[in-house]
Amino acid sequence: MSPFFIMSVLLGLTFGQAASLCAPSEYTIHVEKRECAYCLAINTTICAGFCMTRDSNGKKLLLKSALSQNVCTYKEMLYRTALIPGCPHHTIPYYSYPVAVSCKCGKCNTDYSDCVRERVRTNYCTKPQKLCNV
């Protein structure tokens, strides 16, 4: 093998790892139920970051499978459950949420991720706030 080929492979591997910046990131979820007296601010981790992807300008020339774009998604996750304070007895006061343990660049799985760009939503409380740390 030529030294040029080996250097190209090494640079490609190095650049590929450095260019994909997908990792667990701190995030705060605000949860409230109409029946409950408080809003709960939950500190958790989500997958966020940049993944290398292909330009699909030549989509008429490529197979459909080659057009999928990589996103930063969960590799490993677990679920935790929080108790929303101030709920009456007839209301279920629990909220389960995902916690990212590790992340990867890959195809978006609609079983546990929203793969569509969402409209801008507010993430705040309208009721008095309680804090829940993970």
Residues in helices, as a percent range = 10-25%
N→C terminal distance: 51 Å
Largest sheet: 3 strands, mixed
Radius of gyration: 21 Å
Strand content: 35-45%
Subunit structure: Heterodimer of a common alpha chain and a unique beta chain which confers biological specificity to thyrotropin, lutropin, follitropin and gonadotropin.
Domain Glycoprotein hormone subunit beta: 21-125
GO molecular function: hormone activity
Protein name: Thyrotropin subunit beta
Q: What are the SSEs and their pairings?
A:
Layout (H helix, E strand, L loop, with lengths): L2 H17 L1 E12 L6 E12 L20 E13 L10 E13 L22 E5 L1
Parallel strand pairs: 2-5
Antiparallel strand pairs: 1-2, 3-4
GO molecular function: hormone activity
Main location: secreted
Subcellular location: Secreted
Q: Can you walk through the features of this model?
A:
With 134 residues, the protein is mainly β. The chain has one domain: Cystine-knot cytokines (Cystine Knot Cytokines, subunit B). The protein is built from one helix and five strands. Strand 1 and strand 2 (39-50) form a beta hairpin. The longest helix is centred in the N-terminal third of the chain and has 17 residues, at 3-19. It starts with a helix and ends with a strand.
Based on the model shown, name its key terms.
134 residues; mainly beta; Cystine Knot Cytokines, subunit B; three-stranded mixed β-sheet; two-stranded antiparallel ribbon; 1 helix; 13% helix; elongated
In short:
This protein is mostly beta strands. It has one helix at 3-19; strands at 21-32, 39-50, 71-83, 94-106, 129-133. It has a 3-stranded mixed sheet with strand order 1-2-5. Strands 3-4 form a two-stranded antiparallel sheet.
